[in-house]
Amino acid sequence: MNKDILGFINSNRDLLDLIIDMVPIPLFVKDRAGRYIDCNMAFKNFLSFSREQIIGKTVYDIWSKDEADVFFYKDKELLDRGGLQIYEARITSSGGVHYDVQFHKQTFTDSSGAAIGFLGAVFDITENKRLENALVRLASTDELTGLLNRREGMARFETLHKDSERKKRPYCLAIIDLDHFKGLNDKYGHASGDLVLKAFSDLMKKILRCGDVCFRYGGEEFIVLLPETQLEEGFRVVERLRKNWAITKVALSDCQFVQSTVSIGLAQSITNNFSFDYLIQASDKALYDAKNNGRNCTACAQSRPI
Length: 306
Description:
Catalytic activity: 2 GTP = 3',3'-c-di-GMP + 2 diphosphate
CATH topology of the largest domain: Alpha-Beta Plaits
Low-confidence stretches: none
Radius of gyration: 30 Å
Strand content: 15-25%
CATH class of the largest domain: Alpha Beta
Distance between the termini: 90 Å
EC number: 2.7.7.65
GO molecular function, one term: diguanylate cyclase activity
Oligomer: single chain
Number of strands: 12
CATH superfamily of the largest domain: Reverse transcriptase/Diguanylate cyclase domain
Organism: Thiobaca trueperi
Order of helices and strands: HHEEHHHHEEEHHEHHEEHEEEHE
CATH architecture of the largest domain: 2-Layer Sandwich
InterPro entries: Diguanylate_Cyclase, GGDEF_dom, Nucleotide_cyclase, PAS, PAS-assoc_C, PAS-like_dom_sf, PAS_4, Rev_trsase/Diguanyl_cyclase
């Protein structure tokens, strides 16, 4: 390279700043004390901060304590270890906009090899995260009802079962079946049946407690998991759901209204070791007891229908 050009670049900070500012990736430089000593235009624009708000400041001068703590300890880890560091975090602009980002940071050293600061690059991965989360939701959600699908629901069930066994805490499981659903489909059509399933799912989201988990088990069957719940309390919860559904009128597409009922089988976990398959079988047997008792009721496992 022409020595005159090298000399010009080395002596002309404005040109170097211009080159760095043309890079569309947000870049910054920090010293060992954690102060920002330089940044490019993309960094300022990304965070909606002025240069005066950044240079000479630390993360605690700019971000909330929760965010600043993450950045501070990551910076300390990098400076202690040296080399390259890559990690993901959430960052907030001055306007309150939240971004998912990936940091790439590399230390630079003095003549003795000690790290005296680092250069950082910020990559906006917000859209990638949004797409990832959307795919997770698609994989775990029942398309019609918006509830968890069977696979995700059973995974939550297994987790609850293991946690409850470890903590020796009770929980309940309810299997719910929409009464005479086939007849409703035959009379009004499958599109109307879908509206009924959706309406019941919406009611569950409204009536159940915030810690309860409900999912579509298959067809017109649903499962509700009630953590930290004994049979008596579980009965009160599902009965509230059953009674509310019995008086719910579902609007069909042709301006008709339809009412439906549900039968519920309820079982409580027991303290000694047992498989969660056993609890499903017990709830399923209670469900058939409820149906044999005339439907539109809740039956508890190992007890007469209530």
